[in-house]
Amino acid sequence: MSNPSKTAQRFLESLNSSNSRDVFEILQTLAEELENKNDPEMTEVRLVENIYNFIEKLKIMEGNLKSYIKESTPESVGNALSKLYDEIDETGSIYRD
Question: Against a cut of 0.70, is the pTM above it?
Answer without folding.
Answer: no
